[in-house]
Amino acid sequence: MRNLFRVFTVTLLGNFFLAPSFAEPLPVPFNADDFRPALKLKKKIYISQGSFTAGSSETKRAILTEIKVAKNPEGYVRWVLTSVDNVAGETGPLSIPPYTVVENRYDERKTIVTLFGNLTLKSKIEDAVTQAKKTGLFEDIDLLPVLEKDRWTFTIRHKKQLKLEVFQLSNPARVVLDFLIP
């Protein structure tokens, strides 16, 4: 059911003045069932539409060291995002990847990946784009500018509608995206 009404809130300004504010309704109703936690291992459960969450919000500063893309003979293309810890400029092992939201938009032929936690990018994105294009399933990677200091987003554009499975691994900390080859 769509949320067709405005939400009324009251904001306290100073000690004496109350100011009402109105929130616009969401264009699409929020559905918590569209979010799935990433599993700790591959289960071969692919979804066409929806979001996965992976990693931990406790990881505040990480370095994305590598993005690898490769076709697997078992019928999927795997993207691996590898992270290490970044404490005072020193790198170290990270047991859990930074908090990540992966949203698959089947009808729009794209996947949106957002990594949280003041991430530093050390991976060569050009290499990932080249590897992705070699698979024949992906058009490009759109790198979005950093709008918030604690998150970075990129979009993977598909040539076809693709189903997706996401899971996370540790030692080293990785978020894995497996796209089922149609």
Binned, the helix content reads under 10%
Query: What global shape is seen?
Result: globular
Write down the CATH class.
Mainly Beta
Tell me the domain tally: 1
Average per-residue pLDDT, rounded, comes to 80
Assess the beta-strand content as a share of residues: over 45%
CATH architecture: Sandwich
**DSSP E strands, number:** 14
- Stretches with pLDDT under 50, minimum 5 residues: 1-30
Largest sheet: 6 strands, mixed
CATH topology: Immunoglobulin-like
Report Rg.
19 Å
**Helix and strand sequence:** EEEEEEEEEEHEEEE
Question: How far is the first residue's CA from the last residue's CA?
Answer: 33 Å
Spatial strand sequence of the major β-sheet: 3-4-8-9-12-11
Structural class: mainly beta
Instruction: Count up the helices.
Output: 1
List the topology elements.
Blueprint: E1 7-13, E2 17-23, E3 35-37, E4 49-54, E5 62-72, E6 76-87, E7 90-92, E8 100-105, E9 110-116, E10 120-121, H1 125-134, E11 138-143, E12 151-158, E13 163-169, E14 173-180
Parallel strand pairs: 3-4, 5-10
Antiparallel strand pairs: 1-2, 4-8, 5-6, 6-7, 6-14, 8-9, 9-12, 11-12, 13-14
Task: Describe the structure concisely for a colleague.
The strands form three sheets. The chain has a six-stranded mixed beta sheet with strand order 3-4-8-9-12-11, covered by helices on one side. Strands 5, 6, 7, 10, 13 and 14 form a six-stranded mixed beta sheet that branches. It has one helix and 14 strands, in the order ββββββββββαββββ. By secondary structure, the chain is mainly beta.
